[in-house]
Design brief:
Length: about 625
């Protein structure tokens, strides 16, 4: 149970109990039986007192747990002089709680991960030496001071160097800039801005420096709002009731009734104590944690890190799954989809146009240039050196290759060199790179963020496993998102979503538990808000990974289905282990009620039941045969 004040759930309690058992045995062997009884009884009652304090608080809140039986067993055996049985019960409880604590421990580092990515300082341009943007997008020389991020004020002029994170929301003072906003909005393609545009903190600057006028302090900016959303969502996540406690009321009621009946019929309080010892719910306390530990271990070997036992159980019961688009359902990296030759290309072939384009683009730092050169390498095309190459920030590249001038980039850039060009045949989700060869337009290279090949099978498998609602949440526009959703088999989509929008959508989903699968900083709040957040950690952000309960360490979307399968199998084995333990405990309790099983024998009998249930629960750590 969450928030319970109970026995210290640390391994040292097990060690301390073992030490007390050894001391008790040594005192008995030395002939100091009275001292042995006082030692064991005092220790057992001290533990019971701590247990009782937390239990009374739980009962006042209406929460009943199986620990009540353990508490009564300790007291009953101590009062009737069965001090060895009493201390063995304490050992069983301590070991069960230590396993439970170890299995369900989770890292509380979501905010730290976000803050580690946030800039610690900013480059402020002082009033007596302000910089002014030049035509090539870079700032002129001026007086720049590095200041702590919290010292930035609204109206400050700020320099953001290449590949730095924008420290505060602001208005672009540079003529143009290219920013990577994938961590904020999920948009996989770089976004171009012109002077006067509003840019968001948390965006990653491109290859050229920019200046901006701060319109908000860092604390009020977009990135800080994401941090706050993660904190709020993590704090509001509903606690999960411990699996064993769901069996508490009927099992406890039966055990108490049987103990009272045996005492009444036999007039022997020791029989009641023996029943309570036999009813000590160690199979309930231990079987589920062992099964969940096995499931977590099994998942880890498959490249799936599950941080808590609660997450494993929620995976098994999931009714809704929401996917981010960029980097989750899609690869997150632009790929060349098609090369469209223009009528003016003459005798040039697709491979020749691609080779010339890549030969020019090899001198560019743009993300689309990397996709084009990668496609040329995939086709085995040799790149030629350029005798002259010049990159025009946010516009394109011009290079002389084998005596021919090659122009690659945006429409207006290429049109300025080769004349008017036609409209590209774009499908939803695609972007075009224009190519000019010499003084003629050669054609388009169309790029898109391709759907992962495993996405359709993952979606269909989740539906087959009982998921009722599969949806996609994305910051992209509807045309792009709907095209990807249709290919993936997702019927419900939400577009143009900011991080806060995603959180609200997930919170309001009727079919629960809800799994959210994402990879970027923009996904961190919704991963924390979902019942189970799954981060694609192989290529995703640290913030997403730290906000999630489940991290997939390999770049394979099909692992989402595997995580759900492992959760279902683990929960089934845990419930079966509990059922076996309860059945055997009932047999032992009946023997105790009839006087065949004394308290100490009942304690050791329970240890035997523990061993059997643990061995059965360990099946969760093995891969299934099918």
């Amino acid at each position: 149970m969450q928030g319970r004040t109970s026995l210290p759930r640390l391994p040292w309690l097990v060690v301390l109990t073992c030490v007390v058992i050894v001391v008790t045995i040594l005192l008995d062997v030395a002939g100091a039986g009275a001292a042995a009884q006082i030692t064991a009884t005092s220790y057992s009652l001290a533990v019971a007192t701590v247990q009782a304090y937390g239990m009374l608080r739980d009962i006042r809140k209406g929460h009943w747990g199986v620990d009540l039986l353990a508490l009564m067993a300790i007291i009953a055996t101590a009062v009737t002089g069965e001090y060895y049985a009493s201390i063995v019960v304490v050992l069983m409880i301590a070991s069960g709680q230590a396993l439970d604590a170890f299995a369900s421990a989770r890292a509380q580092t979501q905010l730290r991960a976000l803050l580690e990515r946030a800039p610690r300082s900013a480059h402020r341009i002082t009033e007596d030496g302000q910089e002014h943007a030049t035509g090539d997008g870079g700032p002129e020389a001026g007086s720049i001071e590095d200041v702590p991020i919290d010292d930035l004020q609204v109206g400050d002029l700020v320099l953001v160097r290449p590949s730095e994170v924008v420290p505060a929301d602001g208005t672009l003072e540079t003529d143009s800039a290219t920013l990577d906003e994938s961590m904020l909005t999920g948009e996989s393609m770089p976004v171009d801005y012109q002077r006067g545009a509003q840019v968001l903190s948390g965006s990653l600057n491109g290859a050229d420096a920019l200046t901006l006028r701060a319109t908000a302090t860092p604390a009020q900016s977009q990135y800080s709002q994401i941090v706050a959303l993660v904190a709020e969502a993590s704090a509001s996540r509903s606690p999960t009731v411990r699996l064993a406690d769901r069996f508490a009321v009927p099992f406890t009621a039966f055990a108490l009734a049987l103990a009272a009946l045996s005492w009444f019929l036999s007039s022997d309080p020791t029989r009641a104590a023996a029943v309570l010892v036999a009813a000590t719910p160690c199979p309930l306390l231990i079987a589920a944690p062992v099964a969940f530990l096995g499931g977590i271990s099994r998942a880890a070997r498959a490249g799936i890190i599950i941080r808590s036992t609660q997450a494993l159980e929620q995976l098994a019961r999931a009714r809704s799954v929401a996917f981010d688009k960029t980097g989750t359902l899609t690869s997150g990296t632009p790929l060349v989809g098609e090369i469209v030759l223009a009528p003016t290309a003459g005798s040039l072939t697709e491979d020749e146009v691609l080779a010339l384009t890549a030969s020019a683009e090899q001198y560019s730092t743009h993300v689309l240039a990397a996709a084009i050169t990668a496609e040329a390498a995939r086709r085995g095309l040799a790149l030629r050196p350029a005798s002259a190459a010049q990159e025009f920030a946010t516009d394109g590249v011009r290079a002389e290759v084998a005596g021919t001038m090659i122009a690659v980039g945006k429409r207006r850039f290429v049109e300025g060199l080769v004349g008017r060009v036609p409209d590209p045949p774009l499908s939803p989700g695609e972007t075009a790179v224009y190519v000019g060869v010499g003084e003629r337009f050669a054609g388009f290279i169309l790029l898109r963020d391709a759907l992962r090949s495993s996405a359709p099978s993952t979606v269909s498998s989740l539906v087959a496993l009982g998921v009722q609602d599969v949806l996609m949440l994305t910051g992209d526009v509807e045309a792009t998102a709907r095209h990807i959703a249709r290919e993936a088999g997702v019927t419900t989509i939400h577009t143009d979503c900011l991080p806060g929008d995603k959180v609200e959508i997930v919170r309001n989903l009727p079919e629960r538990p809800v799994i959210m699968v994402g990879d970027g900083v923009n996904d961190a709040p919704v991963l924390a808000a979902a019942d189970v957040g799954i981060a694609m950690g192989a290529r995703g952000s640290t913030a997403a990974s730290e906000s999630a309960e489940v991290i997939i360490t390999v770049d394979d979307l099909a692992k989402v289905t595997e995580a759900v399968l492992i959760g279902k199998r683990t929960l089934r084995i845990a419930l079966q282990s509990i059922g076996i333990g309860i059945a055997l405990s009932l047999v032992l309790m009946m023997g105790a009620a009839l006087g065949f099983v004394p308290p100490l024998a009942g304690a050791f009998g329970q240890e035997g039941i523990d061993l059997l249930t643990i061995l059965y629960a360990l099946r969760a750590a093995r891969a299934p045969r099918k």
